[in-house]
Amino acid sequence: MGAALLLFSCQQRQERVVTPYGSVLDSVAVTEDFDLDDIQTNGELIVATVSGPETYYDYHGRQLGTQYLICQHFADSLGVRLRIDVCRDSAELKRRLQDGEADLVAWPTPGEIEVGAEKPELAEELALWYHPDRIAAAKKEEQELLTVRKVRRRIFSPMLDKRGGIISHYDQYFITYSRDIRWDWRLLAAQCYQESTFDPKAVSFAGAKGLMQIMPGTADHLGVSRSRLYEPEVNIAAATKYIAQLQRTFADIGDHYERTNFVLASYNGGSHHIRDAMALAKRDGKNNHRWSEVAPYVLRLAHPRYYNDPIVKYGYMRGSETVDYVAKIRQRYAGYQGVKSPHMGFHPSQPRKADQRKKKYDL
Length: 363
Description:
Number of strands: 10
Strand content: 5-15%
Oligomer: single chain
Strand order of the largest sheet: 1-8-4-7
Shape: globular
């Protein structure tokens, strides 16, 4: 099948929900001879694979990878949802196949299709559906998602009125909500520009919305209505609430400056991947609480030697964007530091009195 080798299982299987690298959360036995009709009745196609740029990875809340996209399109043709079980290595993939724990197994190397003798209907359906051009089509689709259609937004100036000391139309919201996370409001503004260029209607290919590019799932987690994510104040308030959660996640990093770098990186690339990079850095004798020493390992998570390392729990990562994200925000923040807040006496570390707090939206 070219870049995507799919093998079919024909034995008894388990219907399962899994975390990365196959940690079982739930297990329900289903019957033998689970062929096409059963899959469509059940409404789910289960694919086992490994983490990697050609197979499967998570990118800003969107699942990508050439083989993943091929499998997703096949599942769409069947009218069922696709579920991915991420395995550690080829040995685990073989075991999943032998134990009948998946409908398909997507291997990271080129190969052919093997069909289980007791899944003739599924095998025939795949044979009719698949043709080699689907590999090139999936690669093209992925490239478009990662480039041209990454974020739809209008481009606004990074400084609204330099002489007047106004960064954006949303400075008052940055000033108000940055206090809750003890950030300089100008750093929050710099992050916002990196996320959306101050476009409140910006939307990414993965569905992130608004000034601070809040994902729908994150909004649900924060208790924010998805329908309000395009409202500037609601969006900024949600972002600072999420940032506060990330700060607690990295509470083991005592230095405020360094912790903020890790928070920014996690906002972009996900805290689990950043923790993987920290674990690699610590193993190699680096200071895993210093961003300059961890950032190289974020980059290395794009290479098999590192994302397949047993210490890594969450696999492949497009780390170059995350490292660049932190650097650009820091650079823009340095440029913004000459801009003074209208509240001249305010310092981010100073507490506010209750009667000075601006009433917020309930999150």
